[in-house]
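Weekly modeling sync, notes
Attendees: S.R. (lead), two postdocs, one rotation student

Agenda item 3: backlog of single-chain predictions. S.R. asked that every request posted to the team notebook include the full sequence so nobody has to chase files. The rotation student volunteered to paste the first one in as an example of the format we agreed on. Action items at the bottom.

Example entry:
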Amino acid sequence: MLRVVLAQPRGFCAGVERAIEIVERALKKYGPPIYVRHEIVHNRHVVDDLRRRGAVFVDELDEIPPGGMTVFSAHGVARRVEELAQERALPVIDATCPLVAKVHNQGRRYAAQGRELVLVGHAGHAEVEGTIGQIPAKVHLVQTPEDVANLTPENPGHMAYVTQTTLSVDDTRHIIAALTERFPGIVGPDVRDICYATQNRQQAVRDLASAVEVILVVGSRNSSNSNRLCEIGIDLGRPSYLIDDASALRREWFAGVASVGVTAGASAPELLVQGVIEGLRQFDEVEVTSLAGVAEDVRFRLPAEVADVA
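Predicted structure, as returned to the notebook:
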């Protein structure tokens, strides 16, 4: 018998639900095609499903024909992208997660105070690129405490930091500690300002690690928050595997194992979790239980362009 323990909470967060719903409602209201700049969320199954329904995912705005209804992804975009859309007179629906938009606002507020900005985040991530492009000031990107030692700000006495929303809370805390040690006057949000859903899912993995022998994280390789969940499990001494879906399961992972924990990144649908449970039945009889955890009831308001769609 294989005991399968489900993390709580897991899977879709309010920002992801909102972004997907925006595309779905836009398809219903305006009809396909709806053009989405970059993946609406970082999950292959979600993107493929929306593509089948008429969403067209593009890397840059110049791939969108004149007048094409355009959606910006949940990760946010740089100010220059917004300006290019305006120059081309593209109709735009902004699906940026409100918590990412909050980081943009924090950064702009610090820039207005004349502060030099540090962004704690991962190079190349869509959210990081969007945030840097939203702040009208010099932005230094740091990914580790070691990066802090190499910073060369022009005005070290007048600095501020903001953070990517999907980071590990523990890693972020260490980087902020390094920043405050080197630049005692630096200001920024508390680590608790990292996305509530990110924190809840990370805590759920910590709880899971004390209850199971192996952890499965359902999520895509390019999902930052899914990678962080897997890393936390490994750091806590549990073999942990990031999988797209049940097809990635390997029998050898469960040899001699009596308990498996299952969670999902914030952009992974519950359907994939249920598929993984069914996939585990090929190895042994399965008994499913769930951890007690935080019940999330957050809902974000939809943009006016699609709020009237049933």
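Discussion: group reviewed the output briefly. Residues 2-12+196-290 form a domain with the Cobalt-precorrin-4 Transmethylase; domain 1 fold (CATH 3.40.1010.20).
Action items: rotation student to repeat for the remaining queue; S.R. to check formatting next week.
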